[in-house]
Predict the structure.
Amino acid sequence: MEAKAILRNARIAPRKVEIVLNLIRGRDLETALAILKHTPKSACEYLIKLVNSAAANAEVKQMDKTNLYVSECFVCPGPTLKRIHARAKGSAARILKRTSHITVVLSEKE
């Protein structure tokens, strides 16, 4: 049995999230939350809430919280916000503000 949580349109670039997801993939729930709490990356704020949400979803499904581990976690690019930055001689440069769709799946150890 598995419990899933999805965060859509997070205002952080997918490559920044992927670094932190690689740290928690395959870890048990307590270890994953400890890693996220002590890692100085901006993606950790989003991921702590997301892992806690997946754990709450597991609790609703009557799964044992002590046997949970991060079985699957991945990030997909969301819509990109296009902005402009003024440059010399009246021209403009494009700024791409990237967003992410983050998915975390918790499963029970057997």
